[in-house]
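Instructor's aside before we start: the two examples that follow are unrelated to each other. I chose them only because their records fit on one page, so don't look for a connection. First example below.
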Amino acid sequence: MAEAPPVSVNEKKFIENALRKGIRVDGRKALTMRKLQIQFGRKAGTVEVSLGKTRVFSACSADVVKPYPDRPSEGFLRLFVDFSPMASPYFEHNRPSGRSVQLSRMVQRGIRESNAVDTESLCILSGSRVWEIRCDVRVLDDDGNLGDCANIAAVCSLLHFRRPDVTVVGDRVTLHSVDQRQPVQLAMHHIPIIISFGIIAEDESLVMIDPNRKETTVSTAELSFTVNKHKEICGIHKIGGTPLNPNKILKYANVAIENATAITEKIEKLLAEEEKSQQKRSRRGESVYTNPIEAFIDNPEMEEEKGETKKKMEEEED
């Protein structure tokens, strides 16, 4: 299924036989995920996530732009996933494969189309100024299940990010540096988590959660759920033609919700610990947020061309 070194026939048979016995090549059970590690950076919005040996880095930034005429009170959320050759020799620089495009779109839709981020809260001055939040995700190591790891990294980056505070007086907008005012956290409605399953055949015993690289390579299909801790299914994405019984899909959806709830609780716990750590650094007089403020909005007129270009980019992504 994925761009990875091919797996021999003997390896494929070994993986299948092990799954039929309820175990996997790395010692896990069929419905057990790998260890999740999340490490936040000193700069707000930077995070490195590891799911087993799969590693992904994500960083957020903000800019002030002009909104679309038909949505004057909504800001923008841009997500970009980069599959660099550093992660795998089977990824080519600036030449995404069909598989890479599918995973990238799955991550983007899982966050944007589920309305996880409140885009109306990104409005500064209706019809004139809004925030554009950009989230860049880069794959560092590929050991399978890149979609889930990239999704968790993007979500953690958005939760950890802080945008500059603003003051609006009439038509004039003033951005405040981190030294003047405390940066503002993004408003999020919920935390969407993607949970993926690898399917080797129609046999129910050959379905596993969080497949590693070899398991992903031998899989004939993948089934991904975008869910949250409120037991809401925000999206279902299937790659491959292996048919599935509706009852099995419902079963795996419940498993996905259980794992997404555990991951969400872990993210919230780590964010709370990070917040306490930032408060301690602040009391010691250390810099907590280091986001550069590079947007200046003294001129009420913005370039129409920039807004049109951004709209074309979003239409191409959709």
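Example two begins here.
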Amino acid sequence: MLISIHNCRGWVGVGGFIPLHLLSPTFVASLKGEGVNMTFGSKGFFGYSLSTPYSSSTSDTDLDQHTLGWWSIYESPALPEPSERTSSHVRTFLLSQHKSWKSPYDTPSLGVYEELINLGCPLDIELPAETNGKENVRELMVLPRYQSPRMPSWTSQSGRIILIGDAAHTMPPDSGQGASCAVEDALMVGCLLGRFYPSEGNQENGKKAQEETFKKVAKAYQSLRMGRVHKILDVAKRNGEGKKQTSWFGQKVRDFFFWVLSLLPQLIHDGAYMYKVEESVEQYKE
């Protein structure tokens, strides 16, 4: 039997969506040339990105059809109480952490991070005139972070049950590899079945041959996938640690690392982002 116990990891993620027409024109104009924006500071992390296509050809009258996604994360030694998940509480806390952060798109009267936090954590009194009976797209999401221990096996002994994706290895968002790993898992199982499943001319043993195929696929799947996935989990853990509140010196070390990383050629990421499942299956030796 496979048992997975989820433990609170000491992190709480918050985020939501903001219609572009509510944002200042200066900030909206900057989004036409921006991709995903992620900022690390001494007091944690804050990110935002367009969640719908938006370009220089988009007219101002269409802004209410587009939204910006935003997210942040902060440390919490225990699960937040219901009173700590309210929009007003989260707004107050995030402003204490990020209100003083600077952006090239700040205006004299309002900073970008203050604007995003105030709009992303709306108070009830601020919503009725905006929604006009429609679903509130600015609903705040408060998501405590859980962690699953690494399971010793992702398959049954018979090989008839194979877990893939988060069912086998819950991937935290700090690696950006959750969906990718699930797709790799599924493709790996398919390629292994193609390699080991007996051909039509070699099915004399019928059920016995099929059972052996499932066992071979399960064994190869774990052998090929566990090492890679565990490395990605390790990277995700290190990335998550970089979002914690840190000292002045710790911030400088982290920022220096990011600067060095930006100077290196993109091929250093090939191991993570250019993985070729088919080649791994071809090179696998029983």
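The radius of gyration is 24 Å.
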